[in-house]
Design goal:
The chain is of the alpha/beta class. Helix content is about 30%, strand content about 15%. Bound molecules: 3-phosphoglyceric acid and cobalt (II) ion. InterPro entries: Alkaline_phosphatase_core_sf, BPG-indep_PGM_N, Metalloenzyme, PGAM_B_sf, Pgm_bpd_ind.
Length: about 600
């Protein structure tokens, strides 16, 4: 118990209600037409920067700041939320797999020995995301694994790939499949029967997350395990090229297909005695398949046939569930997270997002651990996401519902920390639809706080005095305001910051990585880069950009501001910062706090 006890902070008092808001995919970049955050009307986020610059700054959210192998690695939600919650930087899955492959240790591990049992009589199946995005998996790791498995005695190998277009440019799938085909043909020359067996787009086949839509996993299961799919091809390159010709087709959503032999039979259904490796290192979008492959009791869809296999994940995907039971590389041990400390120190926590980001503020935040630390002190609320759509058609997503849940939790007085993720900038940014992403950014901004616009001056009038004046004037001069929402805002708190203001609390607004702030691929000088046909290359992926962090609210100690001696601060510095705001010193090994109090 004592090991968990945090020292009192000498300056920050305890007992303040803190709203911890993560705007997913919200970075800071040059303000041009491809920066959707700049184009969108985002008065709340703008106001932090302009009205209280000593309580607004940028922090690093990519590369080494979040435990990724290199500074060329863009940030992502897994490593971003891990860093935010854990307060330290852990070498992440991508890096751990790199070193296990480089040293060869992967082949001596328990997981590899387990799958090796299939090598004499069975087939080794490799299932995962085929790209060099480095978010869920990496092509070069797959290539090394293929080579290593063959050297270790695998005689028959089948690859079931998912095309990307979300962490890499749309259309890049063809090149990745060609590269893979070359590698497999090299293996065939060495006498290994190695082939691609099936494929499909990651968002339509296999890689769902947080149990949003089991049909996605079922489509993959049918192709990978049963060898059944709506499309059959003799070659995977041909499959991807052909399926991309369909109107509106893209890499993320390609339909499932299987590769068949000359008699039309699938070349690689998964059978008894085979081994399966899911080669993604990131957990969220592999967990559902891992359950389908491993659980005897399973009722999410009809698996039809459940082969007896040797299954291993590239990593262990869930430390709490011990899923899967076998894995090739041990995951980062992210322990003593801020969430666990705070619960031990009496901080009652509420966490909320919609399904597609729910695990980000719970599972990833808590160091890849599902469930609460203490049911009595924590409540995690999931708002069901819309299923079966791409979010450019619903760019507002559930931002308002999340904000209202947070508002109610703040006003309830039952919680000390209210933590939410607003998914819009990221989920809509990934669609590459610039117009929709602009709408998404506005929706996220409004979820933080609805601002009042004056029709006459077009400016944001958010001070209580102005609000009250407008409130008095409304019956006589309705033309002054955009709509009458401000009356509601004035009397009843609508979203997060209104509620924080009402209870005298503190807000911390930040993001996990960039996305919506840059929607085009750029050359070295930062100019939009055109493809061979002269078209703009739309960036669906995350970015290398830093993200903003703002703190404020009536409960914030006077004189509190960002220190200027942590210039390279990143997401991992946020945990100590939030612990301070709760009135505690952070543990010694946490990255330093970003804040200080200057006495007047
Ligand atoms: C995804 O899984 O949607 C993307 O690959 C990464 O996005 P996220 O890191 O924002 O979840
Ligand atoms: Co994303």
């Amino acid at each position: 118990q004592n090991a968990w006890k945090l020292a009192d902070h000498p300056k920050f008092p305890k007992g303040k209600t803190i709203a911890m808001v993560v705007l997913d995919g919200w970075g800071e970049a040059r303000p041009d037409q491809y920066n959707c955050i700049h184009v969108a009307d985002t008065p709340t986020m703008d106001s932090f920067k302009t009205t209280a610059p000593e309580r607004w700054r940028l922090i690093r959210a990519h590369g080494s700041a979040v435990g990724l192998p290199s500074e060329d690695d863009m940030g992502n939600s897994e490593v971003g939320h891990n860093a935010l919650g854990a307060g330290r930087i852990f070498a992440q899955g991508a890096k751990l797999v790199d070193s296990a492959l480089a040293s060869g240790k992967i082949y001596g591990g328990e997981g590899f020995k387990y799958i090796k049992q299939s090598f004499d009589n069975g087939t080794l199946h490799l299932i995962g995301l085929l790209s060099d995005g480095g978010v869920h998996s990496r092509l070069d790791q797959l290539q090394l694994l293929l080579k290593g498995a063959a050297e270790q005695g695998a005689k028959r190998i089948r690859v079931h790939f998912l095309t990307d277009g979300r962490d890499v440019l749309d259309g890049s799938s063809v090149g990745f499949v060609e590269t893979l085909e070359k590698d497999l043909s090299n293996l065939r020359e060495k006498g290994v029967d190695a082939q691609i067996a099936s494929g499909g787009g990651r968002m339509y086949v296999t890689m769902d997350r947080y149990e949003n839509d089991w049909n996605v996993v079922k489509r993959g299961w049918d192709a990978q395990v049963l060898g059944e799919a709506p499309y059959k091809f003799r070659s995977a390159v041909e499959a991807v090229k052909k399926l991309r010709e369909e109107p509106k087709a893209n890499d993320q959503y390609l339909p499932p297909f299987v590769i068949v032999d000359e008699s039309g039979n699938p070349v690689g259904p998964i059978k008894d005695g085979d081994a399966v490796v899911t080669f993604n290192f990131r957990a969220d979008r592999m967990t559902m398949l891992a359950k389908a492959l491993e659980y005897a009791d399973f009722d999410k869809f009809d698996r039809v046939r459940v082969p007896k296999i040797y299954y291993a994940g590239m990593l262990e995907y869930d430390g709490e569930l011990k899923l899967p039971s076998h894995y090739l590389v041990s995951p980062p041990e992210i322990e003593r997270t801020s969430g666990e400390y705070l619960v031990h120190n009496g901080v009652r926590t509420f966490a909320c997002s919609e399904t597609v980001k729910f695990g980000h503020v719970t599972f990833f935040w808590n160091g890849n651990r599902s469930g609460c630390f203490n049911e009595e002190m924590e409540e995690y609320v999931e708002i069901p996401s819309d299923v079966g759509i791409t979010f450019n058609v619903q760019p507002k997503m559930k931002a308002l519902e999340i904000a209202e849940k947070a508002r109610d939790a703040i006003l309830s007085g039952k919680f000390d920390q209210i933590r939410v993720n607003l998914p819009n900038g990221d989920m809509v940014g990934h669609t590459g639809d610039i117009e929709a992403t602009v709408v998404a950014c506005k929706a996220a901004d409004e979820a933080v706080k609805v601002q009042i616009h004056c029709f006459d001056c077009g400016r944001v009038c958010c001070h209580a005095l102005v609000l009250m004046l407008l409130f008095l004037l409304i019956p006589f001069s309705c033309h002054l305001v955009g709509d009458n929402e401000f009356v509601v805002a004035c009397v009843f708190p609508r979203t997060i910051i209104d509620a924080i203001e009402q209870v005298g609390g503190i807000y911390v607004i930040t993001a996990d990585h960039g996305n919506a702030e840059d929607m085009v691929k750029r050359d070295k000088s930062g100019e939009p880069q055109l493809d061979k046909s002269g078209n703009l290359q739309i960036l669906t992926s995350h970015t290398l950009k830093p993200v903003p962090i703002a703190i404020g609210g009536p409960g914030l100690k006077a004189g509190a501001r960002f220190r200027n001696d942590v210039p390279t601060g990143g997401l991992a510095n946020v945990a100590a910062t939030v612990m301070n705001l709760h009135g505690f010193e952070a543990p010694d090994d946490y990255e330093p706090t970003l804040i200080e109090v200057v006495d007047n």
